[in-house]
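Thread: quick sanity check before group meeting

JM: Hey all, I'm pulling together slides for Thursday and realized we never actually wrote out the predicted structure for the chain we discussed last week. Dropping the sequence here so it's in one place. If anyone has concerns about the input, flag it before I start.
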Amino acid sequence: MASLQDQLLKAGLTTKQKTRQANADKRKKNKQQRSGVEHGASLQEQVKQDLAISKADKMAKDSALNDAKNSELANKEQKLRINQILEHHQITGVRGESEYNYTFGTKVKKLSLDSITHKALVNGRLALCGVNDTTYLVTSETAAKVAELDSTIILVQNDKIAVEETNEDDPYADYQIPDDLMW
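JM (edit): ok, ran it. Output follows.
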């Protein structure tokens, strides 16, 4: 049985040139389909890989932003906690005639205290803490709690001065330096 092409050639409806061209076009089309399927599969894999890479990059960026927000929130929470501790535990009503000088940042400030509070501050039972240009007078225990959170808040926290051993040859050994020496 003859093919349709052969029948069309016998009938004179087509020429050998057109049949060859039709066969060539058919082979090219088949070849393109075969290579297109293989190329399409690799293209799909490439797209999947690109998508996975972009998804991983996006997750890394989101994670970094989330970490930054969490650390910022933790810092803000810590500052609020410190302010709450200082405001709740501050000692008020200790104004007096004695002046206590201390440094706050780069400035030397004076605090008027009564004599009992002044001695307690000098001996280390009380401490000074400073936040946002505000000075808080607190107990040494409260200052220790604040120092655990942020040690830069503590302005003055004196240690109890132990009795120092004196040198026998020291001509000033008989003269003690007072704890409440004003400077």
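AS: nice. Residues 16-89 form the longest helix (74 residues). Residues 69-163+178-183 form one domain.
JM: adding both to the slides.
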